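Comment thread on ticket #2218

A.B. wrote:
> Attaching the input chain for the structure job we discussed in standup.
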Amino acid sequence: MSRLGDLIKLERSRRGLSAKQVAKKVGVSESYLLAVEQGTRIIADDQARRILKAMGLQQQTEADFSLDDIAATVDLQSASDQIQRAQATVQRQQKARPEAEKVASSEAGVSGSIWLDALSSVLKRVPVYNAVMKEVGHRLLPVENGKVENAAPDKVFYFMAPDNDMRGFRVTQGDLVLVVPAASPVDGAMMLIQTPQGRVLRMIKQLDNFKVLLQRYDAACESEVCAIDEVRVVGRCVRLEAEL
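C.D. wrote:
> Ran it. Output below, let me know if you need it in another format.
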């Protein structure tokens, strides 16, 4: 079975389009489209996106989800059942409406995508940044009550450890730490801080007289005492992902 083919079939069914109609819009044969939907023909991501766009799907997948993300995550059977129920409801409602209202309702009902709507409410595409804050990948994390790890979804990100400075704290080069916003140092927490040399991970220990201890631990534990107001906090590390 082809997950991308399933997605195309799902969107085509949602819009009430025949395979022949879609094939004509895209400029491919009906047999080719059906083969893609049945999983007997391999289709590239860009071609699948072109077919979806031809059916009227708004290009809202670019910023948050790739088609591979969607295909690997969405319960297509559940979505298909939702479409069938929604279509039956619309048909019943349209029987009692004037013709102009039927057209408006139909156009409004297909402006988005049922699987994109579902994804945006339960998953967030969280970027992975390296030491110079260049995006090098992403992870999909669950959204609970509108938040990721109790933070605004668009404020969280993964930071890839650039070295073994935190090896003594079980974070080695290439590991990913999930960072959430923080306004000030938190005692006993690993935090991402901004230094003149760039962003680094450090363990925080609060001292008296408005000072903090910044700890790193490679071959041995090393500490640096700083005034709290001199520490530029980027965020707090709340999760570690490491390759085995």
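A.B. wrote:
> Thanks. Noting for the ticket: DSSP finds eight helices and nine strands in the chain.
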